[in-house]
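Sequence in, structure out.
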Amino acid sequence: MSAILTEIISLLVAGITSLATGIGTGLKSLVEAIFLETSGNTMALSTFGGLIVVFAGISLAVGLSRWVMNFVTSLGAKN
């Protein structure tokens, strides 16, 4: 009985592993197609990828600035 159970578990694990590998490969190719431009052996960030990085940096800077200002202004406040 344990041999049958072991075989069932190994089949399930192999199926899940191959599914995860397929999803990972698909996502990798999608991200490379959207964000990277390849020519020969060189890879560069696409224009869309550059814009995403710029806006992410601006968002991070604004968010951190708001957090610091809220923290500094609340130092003397009563809770």
